[in-house]
Amino acid sequence: MHILLALSAGLALLQRGHYLEARAALEEAVRAQPQSAPALLDLAELRLTEGEPDRAEESAKKALALAPQDSRAHFMLGRILAEQIDSVSVFSKLSYAKRMKAEFDQAAELNPDSAEAREALCEFYLRAPGFAGGNVDHARALAAELLQIDRVTGLLEQAQVAAHEDQDPAPWFEKAIAAAKTPDERMRAQLSFSATLLQQKKPREAVLRLRAAADGSPTDARIRAALADALLKSGDADGALLAARKAMEVDPALPPAHFFAGEALLKKGDKPGARAEYNAYLRLAPPKGRRAGLARDRLEDL
Questions:
Q1: CA distance 150 to 41
Q2: Euclidean distance between CA atoms 54 and 192, whole angstroms
Q3: Mean pLDDT of all residues in the chain?
Q4: Considering only CA atoms, which of 50, 38, 110, 111 is closest in space to residue 80?
Q5: CB neighbours of residue 213 within 10 Å
Q6: Residue 167's CB: how many other CB atoms inside 10 A?
Q7: Cα separation of 262 and 274, whole Å?
Q8: What is the pLDDT at residue 98?
Q9: What are residue 177's phi and psi, to 5 degrees?
Q10: How far is CA 181 from the centre of its chain?
Q11: What is the distance between the alpha carbons of residues 17 and 13, in angstroms, rounded to a whole number?
Q12: What's the pTM?
């Protein structure tokens, strides 16, 4: 298989949550083309998913050495720094924040049409404290620029700016969902909307949104897994278990579906069932992934 096709297939698997297959495809691509910057950057993406930012940094720096003017390499280094910043000392955080912004700035400068670089900068301006460079006016301006590059991303960032300022982000999310041209774009907008509702402590509203999204995308297990999460947060263990099992019917290899099934079964008092689902999750998910530690903790307590 041509290297670019192999990388595209590996990334698609990773984006759909098929970690084990994605790892095999991407690691094989790098073995076949160890001097390929795109392959190394895709491997860095995999390492981030695995919860291994230091290994991701190693791959990204190799890619940057091969392609110093590659916008994506700078963008990836910025993302890696964003992952690392929570684990460094308070005295190092400011330095990491400045380096992160510099990498995103460089990525945007090298590729003025890079929506992902501008999206990352917008998020930086919204999340960083003022002394580290945070600035909501800059975020608002970047969100407006994004509308001309990638309308869905721009609308989603407008929604984040509104939420940051305690305004109603729903109209922006609705516009983003309406503007989506592909099923993946639509799913991304729907998941972003529901995630914001959960952050705002509105799980029931998130459930309504995700139910509608699941009805409209019956073959996408990721929406049903997200629905299971929202139902758990709303206190509905029975509904969460049903949603997780429907997700597994569509895609038995989707790790979050097994994790949320375990959480629902645990709440229902079914310890053997919960144990089986947590173990299934750990077989399918990255060893240091976002829920792996919690799954292992649950198993120790069972």
A1: 22
A2: 27
A3: 92
A4: 50
A5: 23
A6: 12
A7: 4
A8: 93
A9: -65, -40
A10: 20
A11: 6
A12: 0.87
Give the Cα separation of 205 and 234 in Å (integer): 9
Phi, psi of 49 (to 5 degrees): -60, -35
Q: Are 60 and 100 in contact (CB under 8 A)?
A: no
Contact of 177 with 186, CB cutoff 8 Å: yes
Over residues 242-270, the mean pLDDT reads 96
CA distance 41 to 105: 18
pLDDT greater than 50 at residue 1: no
| C-alpha–C-alpha distance, residues 15 and 42, integer Å | 12
**How far is the CA of 300 from the CAs of 258, 271, 296, in angstroms?**
17, 12, 6
Amino acid at 256: P
Residues in CB range of 124: below 8 A, 6 or more apart: 97, 100, 101, 104, 133, 134
CB neighbour list of residue 76: distance below 8 Å, 6 or more residues apart: 41, 44, 45, 56, 60, 63
66 pLDDT higher than 70: yes
Q: d(Cα 122, Cα 61) in Å, to the nearest integer?
A: 24
Name the band, by pLDDT with cuts 50, 70 and 90, for residue 51.
confident
Report the candidate in 110, 16, 28, 119 with the shortest Cα–Cα distance to residue 72.
Answer: 110
pLDDT, tens only, 132-179: 899 999 999 999 999 999 999 999 999 999 999 999 999 999 999 999
Query: Which residue type occupies 7?
Result: L
Q: Which helix (H) or strand (E) holds 57?
A: helix 53-66
The model's confidence at residue 89, banded by pLDDT at 50, 70 and 90, is confident
Residue 42 carries which side chain, given as an amino acid letter?
A: D
Residue 90 amino acid letter: V
Give every CB contact of residue 7 below 8 A, 6+ residues apart in sequence: 26, 29, 38, 39, 42
What mean pLDDT is predicted for residues 114-127? 95
